[in-house]
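Incident review: delayed structure delivery

Summary: a single-chain prediction request sat in the queue longer than the usual turnaround. Root cause was a stuck worker, restarted by the on-call engineer. No data loss occurred. The affected request and its eventual output are reproduced below so the record is complete for anyone auditing the incident later.

Affected input:
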Amino acid sequence: MRAELLYVEGFDFININDYKSIIIPNQHGTVFIKGNIRKESR
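Output delivered after worker restart:
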């Protein structure tokens, strides 16, 4: 298992149930997702 830090400005494409990650929004609307990220192409 790898823990990665992913920075995204829009996270509509991310299924939280799939990633089971911790979402940390900040004042500027950017989001940090910390957890086990697996990349899937759609």
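Verification: The chain has one domain: 4-35.
Action items: add queue-age alerting; document worker restart procedure.
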